[in-house]
Amino acid sequence: MKRIRVERIVGLLRKNAVVSLLGNGTGAFLGLITLALLARWLPKEEFGRWTVFLTTYTLFETVRMGLLLNALIRYTAGMVSEEEFRRWVGATWQVGIVFTALTSLLLIGLVFGFPVLGRQISDPETVLWFVAVAIITLPANMSTWFLHARSRFLPLQVIRIAVPLVFLLLFSWDWFNGSFTYNGLFRNYFIANGSVSVLVLLAGWSRWEEIRFGLKEHRRQLIAFGKYSIGTLLIANLLRSADIFLLSAFLGPAAVAFYAIPQRFIQLLDTPVRSIVVTDIPRLAELHQRHQLSLFVEHFQRSAGRLWMLLLPVSLAGFVLAEPLVTLLGGTQYRDGALILRLFMIQGALIPLERYSGIGLDAVGQPQANLAKVLIMLVVTISGDLLALYLFQSVAAVAFISILTFCAGLFSGFWFMGRYVSVTLIGTIQSGWKDLSGRLNRITS
What is the pTM assigned to this prediction? Predict the structure, then answer.
């Protein structure tokens, strides 16, 4: 009996969703420690500026990933031929290098060629660090995309954990040696990402030598699909970062720091959602490509509904325990952020269903519909934030707008999905409840 239980546990731990959840959960935990330490070791102004830098860089990474990853998965889902997959790998490398080079040259040209305009973007030193990190992270990013396309989630999670772990160790070392500075964070961030890129090159996960196999046809298809995905992911990231940019512009870096502490909890809540959702994209895309629409609907509604049911109690707990959670992470100086966290927890209850509606649209080959969904959300969040900041000049008012934003995304996403497959919001909730209650009955009986 014990042997059977051990085998079940081992089998569970080998599942892609569990591997992804453990990896992303570990990465989120490391990020949480990093945030807690930097919130205590940096003045509010510098902590706010560092948050703006990371938000901007994440925006760039989102654009690069949106251009390539979803298209790569879409065209290689279920692909058996390794020779054909090498062509897609080569094309991905080629487009990725060109995009990174053009973006880097554009930023450097703006900052150094037009100093007046450049000062509105950032200071030259920060831009140079930005470009350096963008280049050094390319091998590691490529590795995660290729591993994702092949559903090899264990090495993928190793890469994702390594970067925040090395970064945490480096700046903590500086602190204990008395050499910790704000500018030193950029150096440590570059070293952390660079060391992981060296690791993936040595391990062969980046498949950089296959760059020569890329063909014009594959590059064209990547860009054709990616032009929709890039917009979708860019806007989706702007939904998370627009608050940061607008708060920085209207109320300053200190307001960003005050907002970033409770925001990290919503990002932590989003971690299991992203971990599970990304493992479902290849399966949903494969079912749709094989025209197994009834199985697609059944799998989608069961998975999305079950995840929503599982995370609902977590959102409720975060709402109730908001004040001690905010104090634990940022210290007593951020205690007033409890109201913001409670608003975020209401938003958090909507995340699983909204996320699944997005990946469902990509899986059925409708990235333009997903783009329209997130565009609706962006309009709601930017117009709402501007109105809230103009009328109330309040960080909490900005957090409240996020609830309206996710409501708009949730309902529009399922409306778009219903045009292509017979997925409904009510059906998803019912399927989730049926699946979860059935599992609980089997466990208790």
Answer: 0.70
d(CA 374, CA 359): 12
68 with 96: CB under 8 angstroms?
A: yes
Q: What are the structure tokens assigned to 117, written together?
A: 């305009």
Amino acid found at 20: S
DSSP 4-37: HHHHHHHHHHTSHHHHHHHHHHHHHHHHHHHHHH
Domain range for residue 343?
2-444
- Give the up-direction half-sphere exposure of residue 228: CA atoms within 13 A in the CB hemisphere: 19
- Which pLDDT belongs to residue 387? 93
pLDDT digits over 108-136, tens only? 887 777 665 555 556 778 888 999 999 99
- Mean pLDDT lowest for which of 76-80, 213-217, 292-296, 381-385? 76-80
Tokens encoding 261: 């502490």
Maximum separation of any 2 CA atoms in the chain, in Å: 72
Q: In which element (H, E) is residue 287 found? A: helix 253-289
Number of independent structural domains in the chain: 1
Helices (H), 290-321: 293-320
CB 345 within 8 A of CB 319: yes
